[in-house]
Amino acid sequence: QFKEDFFVPRRSVNGAYHGDSVLAAIVKGGDREASVLKILKRGATRITGTAEVLKGNVTVYPDNLRYSTVFVATSLTNGARNGDKVICEITNYPKGKLPGGKIVEILGESGELYCEELAIIRSFELETEFPEDVLAEARKVADEKVILGKRRDLRQKLIFTIDGEDTRDIDDGVSLEIVNGNFVLGVHIADVSHYVKFKSALDKNAYSRGTSVYFPDRVLPMLPKELSNGACSLNEGEDRFALSCEMTFNKNGERLSYEIFKSVIKSRRKTTYTTVQSIIDNDNNACEKYADIVETVLNMKDLCLALERKRDNAGSVNLDVKEAHIYVDGNGEIVIPPCERMLSQRIIEQFMISANEAVAEFLQKNNAPCLFRIHESPAEDKAASFCAFLRDLGINVKEFKGDITSADFQKILKAAEDKPYFSVINKVMLRTMQKARYAEENLGHFGLASSCYCHFTSPIRRYPDLFVHRSLKLALDKNEEKAQKLYGGIAHDAGVDCSARERVADEAERKVDDLYKLAYMSERLGEEFDAVISGVTSHGIYCELENTVEGFVPLEDLPKDRYEFFEDKFLLKGTKHRYKLGDTVKVKVVDYDLGRMKVLFAII
Description:
alpha+beta, five-stranded mixed β-barrel, 28 strands, five-stranded mixed β-sheet
């Protein structure tokens, strides 16, 4: 097998299409050229696209422009009309003709937002409904009463939750006390494994989903709402089964000890990041309304800052990549507010990271199976390209040799934090780093500068956390041998499968976010915005707005000039005008292209 890519000219494709697995031969004397000998497996069995009706027959034009147009005979159109968004199953690949297919579902009118979103969901084959046996099991287990049993009773402790305004599945609650000058932090996580038994119908369905998927107008949850919003959610004032991790830190953020145990908790307050930030900012109304947690919140702020300083000293890479929080308001309007990362959010981030580290260390120490969250160091060739990119921007960096450390990347961010292209560097750095994944072997987490890390804090919405909970509970009961027998053999496959499902969910969420950004900007034609140049090509420039919406300015729409493209300097240079990565510009929204999911700008 070859790791490099080969070019296959049209004459040598031999009936293959995008996504097909093929047997190919290298063409002698060609420059990395190959010829397809045999099609081993077809890549696409179903596509989403728009129907065009002509003389009773339908031609389906795929949403993904890499796929071929499909011909559908009159008897197989399922009543599709001109302009319908459809799901088309490919049934045959006649030689020298378009692939043939049949329409299996009509989603609605092409171009309508809900219909386009549904097409993306279908294209990723995401599950939108739960099977009846899964729903029945969820209803049954959700009715169970919460009984203390042998668990530790924490219902009198001041535990509260901090989440986004629209969060319904509440995995985690937090508590904090000052004891002998030290911080005693409690992270209390819903015990989902108490309800979702290994190899049950609920468990098998959760495994196949892998994760909840979040869109601006809906959630495709990993578990039915009876559990995700009900029995497992740490709702205010209700008894809940939990797994608690209590950690003691000194004033420098150094962990002195930790204890993990099964518990029953009762959240005293359901708060939001906005509310907690108002308390931190000493807002009188918020402090008066939430007087019972004000002191705790201020102590949490102090611990968060101490933990951040400690991680910073360890070389943690704190990327500042803007992520839009797109939502639909009560009037049905799309809202994309400017990105803001509040201290209240950083508090929860630091507390969850600390709990994840403690649990991973406990499982490793006790030789119990774990799905570690690993993040390997960047590949040398990508790191070298990143260095070249930085030098072209005028940032003096040493050539990476041998092992690359997270501290190396941290220094780069600190050197560039006041530059206009800082956000662009964050994006390129993110692409340079490897993708984090799940694995049964602990290889450390590069970005967090953590030697031992797992996901423990979100079992309602992530299957790896549920896996960790099961192994952890057996380890707490001194049943590590049973944990190895039950879960050790499946850990490798679970890591691979959960990582794959996470990638699918991430890509689907990005595509739907792009769709909503496009719909949002389609209502703003003619409006002007400040932007930063986020990409430069020989065909034009990409510009990003403060709210993360990115648009394209084609070369022919730039001010008239003779432009030359300098790829290594990310620069389009004319005799009168120049456009470089990181420059600030003013743009006008002039058009949008739904097929290519592109917003089109013009430079003012």
